[in-house]
Design brief:
heterodimer, A: about 130 residues, mainly alpha, Helix Hairpins, 4 helices, about 80% helix, about 0% strand, elongated, B: about 450 residues, two-stranded antiparallel sheet, two-stranded parallel ribbon, 20 helices, 4 strands
């Protein structure tokens, strides 16, 4: 069972990492979602025990580990929250850049750097001229 | 006990209310400042109690110990909580004086304060993750503050990279629970010695990667310059002076307390990575001509010193790491806030911050560097590198000082009286800790004793 969980989590993480490296922002979001699911699966697997449902009052039989279930639930809720946040962020980026490619965002930044560089190069030339 | 509960509840409850109000109104901004001040006051009371009478511990919800989530304020956590809360307070006052531009800003900063307080005061690994994610989520929203293409692009990178980091952290939490069977930090630390070393090393690597991404150490730094230069000054100050503390604290707490054997094993690797950070950050900062870019690369270099000190380890190394993390957070808060401001007072404050970054007396940075040299005194190579790094930082900060203040290339508004007063207070703190370093030295040694005590 542990092996099955480990393989499943590894596959999901790998797929998520692959999607994360895509240029399309929506795929990047999906990659993050998959990676969060891999983490949830690992949380479930971290406390795999057989037993009765751990509901109070406890029965005489051994109960299964409630902690990993609580952690998995919390992680799912947090994952939902941050995914919603990330989607809104992507939406705003798409609106601002009129594109959903990460390349356009990077291009914008590169252009800004190049413009700054030009200004500094000009200042530097002026200084050199003044020194002469 | 009550100070511990108050410090957590005040910003959490107030943050939810403030998030609903329109933060652009001055009153809401000042309310947020008042809440952060109350949070800081509660934390200072708590810290005084902790430093005087030892750790304060509380189990939430009246559960028996071992079932409920433990909140634990020890010297290390209290010190970082006070530090982060002060940085948030200073940055918020600055932004409110400047005029808040976005309706969610005050609410989100207060929620970030709640998250940071929780991170530093929890004694439970999974609870740490929850507060970590709460602080980070607030950080993601803050990174978009301003809302132009520049901030949005930076926020996108920040969010994606750091989400990956927190999920790696969560994977390690799952691993730690699996091998120790507990989420309580103290009990996990006691049981981790019997764990299969291979499993423990894998878990430690996960924690290290997660916190390094947060700190922006050399191989994990790629997101940092874009974000720090893209964000507004107050946000950059919050991210570098408040949020980045999670990285240093996490490395100390998880490395020094929970996984001390693995930390000792990785000592050389940590020192090498830290040195690479120092050199990389220093060299790139020298090549920059604007203060934000210089500060962003300087941030990468400065955390390298913290990592080297953690790698050296032992009471002296941990104390140096804590002290330098505190001093660095103060420097970065001060310097990032002065960006986009002009005037003689701003120039003087910048010069003092610059002295502190370079490690020149009488600023607090000197004490930090002195402790680092003391920690690294055994290895001449590291000492030489510290010296080279300090020389580089002297060059890059004063190069920018020349450009900005002697040639008058600094753009931005002239600072008003209230802003000058804020800078003055921050500068006095940096100066005061440099002139009279005894209290801070004692605090950092107390905080390091928490770690050294549990590992040895």
């Amino acid at each position: 069972m542990k092996l099955a969980f480990a393989l499943a989590a590894a596959t999901i993480f790998g797929t998520g990492a692959y999607l994360l490296l895509h240029r399309d922002l929506v795929r990047v979001v999906l990659g993050v979602v998959l990676i969060s699911q891999a983490a949830v699966l690992t949380l479930v697997a971290s406390g795999l025990t057989r037993g009765a449902a751990p509901i109070y009052p406890l029965t005489e039989r051994d109960v299964s580990d409630p902690l990993s279930q609580a952690m998995a639930l919390t992680a799912i809720v947090i994952g939902l929250g941050v995914t919603a946040l990330l989607l809104v962020l992507v939406l705003r980026v798409v609106q601002a850049f009129a594109s959903r490619e990460i390349d356009d965002v990077a291009h914008d930044e590169a252009e800004r750097d190049a413009a700054l560089e030009r200004v500094h190069a000009r200042e530097h030339e002026d200084e050199e001229a003044a020194a002469r | 006990m009550t100070a511990l509960a108050l410090a957590m509840v005040i910003p959490w409850a107030a943050g939810i209310v403030l998030a609903l109000l329109d933060g652009r109104r001055r009153l809401v901004g000042w309310l947020a400042v008042a809440v952060l001040a109350a949070n800081l006051a509660a934390l200072v009371v708590l810290a005084a109690d902790v430093f005087g009478n030892g750790p304060v511990e509380e189990v939430t919800g009246d559960w028996p110990t071992g079932v409920g989530i433990t909140l634990r304020a020890d010297a290390l956590g209290a010190l970082f909580a006070v530090l982060s809360s002060s940085a948030l307070l200073a940055a918020t006052i600055h932004e409110v004086l400047d005029g808040v531009r976005d309706r969610v800003f005050p609410g989100v900063v207060v929620l970030l304060g709640a998250g940071l307080t929780g991170v530093f005061l929890t004694g439970d690994v999974f609870d740490f993750y929850v507060f970590f994610e709460l602080s980070m989520a607030a950080g993601y929203i803050l990174a978009t503050y301003g809302g132009t293409r520049r901030e949005l692009g930076a926020a996108l990178i920040f969010t994606t990279v750091n989400l990956l980091g927190t999920f790696v952290f969560l994977l390690s939490v799952a691993g730690l629970y699996h091998v120790t069977g507990t989420l309580d930090m103290a009990r996990a630390a006691a049981r981790v010695a019997d764990v299969d070393p291979n499993a423990a090393i894998l878990i430690a690597v996960g924690f290290f990667a997660a916190f390094s991404v947060k700190l922006g150490l050399f191989p994990f730094h790629f997101w940092l310059p874009t974000v720090y230069t893209g964000a507004r000054p107050a946000v950059a100050a919050i991210l570098s002076g408040g949020l980045a503390n999670i990285g240093a604290y996490g490395l100390l707490r998880f490395g020094g307390e929970l996984l001390p054997d693995e930390l000792a094993l990785a000592s050389t690797a940590l020192i090498v990575i830290g040195c690479a950070s120092i050199v990389y950050g220093g060299l790139l900062a020298v090549s920059r001509r604007t203060s934000t870019e210089m500060l962003a690369y300087s941030a990468i270099g400065q955390v390298g010193y913290v990592l080297v000190a953690i790698g050296v380890g032992g009471p002296v190394g941990f104390a140096a790491a804590i002290l330098y993390a505190v001093v660095n957070a103060l420097n970065k808060t001060l310097l990032f806030l002065t960006v986009e401001m002009r005037g003689a007072i701003v120039g003087a404050v910048f010069a003092l911050g610059a002295l502190s970054v370079a490690g020149v007396p009488p600023a607090a940075g000197f004490v930090g560097k002195l402790e680092l040299f003391r920690a690294a005194v055994g290895s001449p190579a590291v000492l030489a590198l510290f010296f080279a790094g300090s020389a580089l930082s002297f060059v890059y900060v004063f190069q920018i000082y020349q450009y900005d203040f002697w040639r008058g290339e600094r753009t931005g508004a002239r600072s008003g009286r209230p802003q000058q007063a804020l800078f003055g207070v921050l500068a006095l703190v940096v100066l005061g800790l440099g002139v009279w370093p005894e209290p801070l030295l004692a605090l950092s040694h107390d905080a390091a004793a928490v770690l050294a005590g549990s590992s040895g």
